[in-house]
């Protein structure tokens, strides 16, 4: 009996903190996800080709703010279905993230288990 091929889900991680970007990417890759990452929030709005299955997006970034990116993605018919989990070191701005259209919120520093639970919920 042949085993079914594993379908790998793609996650785009966007954070202007390289350490968080690297650690989050490593955790997700270890769990079997295909991970792309960028330090530049504005680059998300230039996505071409197949979209990721999930976007982990920092709220406060130098340059383009994550809430602006989220609002633009959610207002575009081609990208509004893309699940967005916004992340921030400020725990008290979850409503701000949701008002921007985020599907979920994760406060930094986050536990690996919490990150993986939220990712699985949206994939």
UniProtKB/TrEMBL annotation:
The keyword Phosphoprotein applies. PROSITE patterns: RESPONSE_REGULATORY. It comes from the Bacteria. Transmembrane segments: none annotated. The keyword Phosphoprotein applies. InterPro entries: Bact_response_regulator, CheY-like_superfamily, Sig_transdc_resp-reg_receiver. The modification 4-aspartylphosphate is found at residue 58. Keywords: Phosphoprotein. This is Response regulator. It comes from Terrimonas ginsenosidimutans.
């Amino acid at each position: 009996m042949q085993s079914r091929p594993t379908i790998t889900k793609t996650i785009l991680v966007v954070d202007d903190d390289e350490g968080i970007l690297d650690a989050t990417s490593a955790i997700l890759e270890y769990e079997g996800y295909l991970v792309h990452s960028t330090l530049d929030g504005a680059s998300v709005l230039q996505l071409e080709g197949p979209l990721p299955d999930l976007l982990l997006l920092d709220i406060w970034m130098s340059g383009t703010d994550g809430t602006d990116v989220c609002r633009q993605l959610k207002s575009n018919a081609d990208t509004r279905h893309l699940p967005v989990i916004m992340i921030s070191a400020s725990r008290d701005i979850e409503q701000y993230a949701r008002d921007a259209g985020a599907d979920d919120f994760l406060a930094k520093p986050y536990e690996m288990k919490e990150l993986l639970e939220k990712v699985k919920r949206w994939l």
